[in-house]
Specification:
The complex is a heterodimer. Chain A is an alpha/beta fold. Chain A has eight helices and ten strands. Chain A has two domains: 183 residues, 3-Layer(aba) Sandwich (Rossmann fold); 66 residues, no CATH class. Helix content of chain A is 37%, strand content 25%. The chains are: A alpha/beta, B mainly alpha. Bound molecules: adenosine-5'-diphosphate (ADP) and magnesium ion (MG). The site of adenosine-5'-diphosphate (ADP) has 13 residues of chain A, from strand 1, strand 2 and helix 1.
Chain lengths: 263, 263
């Protein structure tokens, strides 16, 4: 049994707006173990981004605590490195400087920064693009830079909020495999959010299905498909069986959420 | 063809032809006495006048340009030094913004000319008064441009920086400032042209040197040639400063005009 890295302890989050109070997440409890790749799937609007923002410390829970190594997260937490859906790269910095941003902020020497960034840039296959600006890169390349930038900051956990959703299908598949390769190499813990069941099945050790708003844990699946998510996996009986199961679960929720919207 | 860009070379040639036609027409109209040269001297006469004003012992035109340019740049730089930092702070802090905004909306609509009486009472007609006029005419605009530019910096970039461990001060220095810089520079370019109108007005009302003064005294002597030389000098100086400014932009914003987009 490996150690718990992140623990959601009965989290509730509501937002008050002019239209009234919205309960985004309710009584959400979950543990993420060190080295685990855990994926949360759920209908749009069920509170996935809200959860991730609370782990990163951008938002505070209305009640309950999120523990990182048993300590509650109370402020923005650089140990929880975030990969944003729209890359959030600094357009005025070159690839290299983007990757070195975290180490520079944290006082790492110039020489060390250079070595580290070179290592990570090579790792994600962007060698030769060190001096390019984000505006010159394709979506897939930008997301690799974003991944690099977070890895160079050596976080305890990687938070990914639908990071590949904006990419085309082929690039997405390649990025999934790259992520797996890199994560497996480093033993990095990952909390990944997606609304694609295939993506979840390819990447995860564990899949959490969320209910519609207010989001809670509806079901948890331990995935024991052969890693690292080769394309062939998607043709095995186990894969298809799991996909059917999870989809049945999610479908119910999506339908409910559509009724909520239309009524 | 419609709506297509002409390209730099072709549009310059066409522009030059247009200018030449315009000047020739003007020349002919004056030479044939359709226009009385007393009211509007011909281009060649204006050129003669300009040569006379630059080659005379005192080279009065060059001195005037230098004096006016110094006044503009001094007042403008003072405005930048105060306005840009203040705008950054206002853009980042809603409380300060709310406190300062009403004051700015009173000062900003005032034409620089309306500051002349007060400034003359306070400062006489020496250099400080010219700087003050330029300052009052440009400061509020710089502040507003900078505030807006700061507020337009994508909040996700602030989040990304915080997530990488940046302190508020580091965010200001490494995210807000470079993020707002393109829009700030665009604003400064506009305000620099305004600063010129400020100094010319100030020199017309109370000064004994500078382009504004030269134009005004020429009018007293009914020397339309000199008036025109003064006016064209203003255009030329603004044009030169604009070119210099573009060069500055290219140095400060190397990532622009590269690649697909800036996001
Ligand atoms: N800052 C906010 N203010 C008010 N409501 C919010 C805010 N952020 C999110 N919400 C609401 O909370 C719910 C969950 O949002 P979110 O976490 O973004 O969902 P997901 O990422 O699963 O699509 C949504 O109904 C959304 O409208
Ligand atoms: Mg979301």
């Amino acid at each position: 049994m490996s150690e718990t890295l992140i623990k959601f302890d009965n989290i509730t989050k509501h937002f008050s707006s002019r239209k009234g109070d919205i309960v985004a997440v309710k009584d959400f409890s979950l543990e993420i173990k060190k080295g685990e790749i855990l994926t949360i799937v759920g209908a749009s609007g069920c509170g996935k981004t809200t959860l991730l923002n609370m782990v990163a410390g951008f938002l505070t829970p209305s009640s309950g605590n999120i523990l990182l190594d048993e300590q509650p997260i109370t402020k923005v937490e650089p140990r929880c490195g975030m990969i944003f859906q729209h890359y959030a790269l600094f357009p005025w910095l070159s690839v290299k400087k983007n990757v070195e941003f975290g180490p520079k902020i944290n006082g790492v020497s110039k020489k060390m920064r250079r070595e580290e960034s070179a290592k990570y840039i090579e790792m994600v296959g962007l060698k030769g693009f060190e001096d390019a600006y984000p505006g010159e890169l394709s979506g897939g390349m930008r997301q690799r830079v974003a991944l690099c930038r977070v890895l160079a900051n050596k976080p305890d956990i990687l938070l990914c909020d639908e990071p590949f959703a904006a990419l085309d299908a082929m690039t997405r598949q390649i990025m999934q495999q790259e992520l797996l390769r890199i994560v497996n190499e480093s033993g990095q813990t990952v909390l990944f959010i997606t609304h694609s069941i295939d993506e979840a099945l390819i990447l995860s050790d564990k899949i959490v299905v969320m209910s519609v708003r207010p989001g809670t844990v509806k079901d948890i699946y331990d995935i024991e498909l052969p890693h690292p998510g080769k394309v062939e996996v998607q043709l095995t009986d186990e894969y298809l069986k799991l996909k059917r199961q999870i989809w049945a679960m999610v479908e119910e929720e999506v339908k409910t959420s559509m009724n909520i919207v239309s009524s | 063809m419609e709506g297509e860009e002409l390209g730099l070379w072709r549009s310059s040639v066409i522009g030059a032809i247009g200018l030449l036609v315009f000047l020739s027409l003007w020349e002919i109209l004056v030479r044939t006495n359709v226009i009385d040269p007393f009211f509007l001297p011909a281009p060649t006469q204006v050129i003669d006048k300009a040569i006379q004003m630059t080659t005379a012992e005192d080279a009065v035109l060059l001195t005037d340009i230098k004096i006016s340019a110094t006044r503009v740049l001094t007042g403008f730089l003072l405005s930048v030094l105060v306005g840009v930092p203040a705008g950054l702070i206002m853009g980042m802090n809603p409380v300060i913004r709310a406190a300062i905004n009403p004051i700015i909306s009173i000062i900003r609509p005032l034409p620089a000319l309306s500051w002349i009486p007060l400034s003359m009472l306070w400062l006489g007609i020496d250099e400080q008064q010219k700087y003050a006029i330029v300052f009052m005419g440009s400061f509020a605009s710089i502040l507003v441009y900078t505030t807006d530019a700061t507020m337009r910096v994508d909040p996700i970039l602030r989040r990304a920086a915080m997530n990488l461990g940046a302190s508020p001060l580091q965010i200001l220095r490494y995210v807000i400032l470079p993020g707002a810089l393109p829009d700030i520079l665009t604003g400064l370019k506009v305000v620099l042209a305004i600063a010129w109108t400020c100094v010319i007005s100030a020199e017309m009302v109370g000064a004994n040197s500078g382009l504004g003064f030269r134009i005004w005294t020429a009018k007293e002597w009914s020397d339309t040639g000199q008036v025109l030389v003064g006016m064209i000098s203003i255009s030329a100086t603004v044009l030169v400063l604009d070119i210099l400014f573009r060069g500055l932009e290219r140095v400060l914003l190397p990532y622009q005009n590269k690649g697909l987009g800036n996001k």
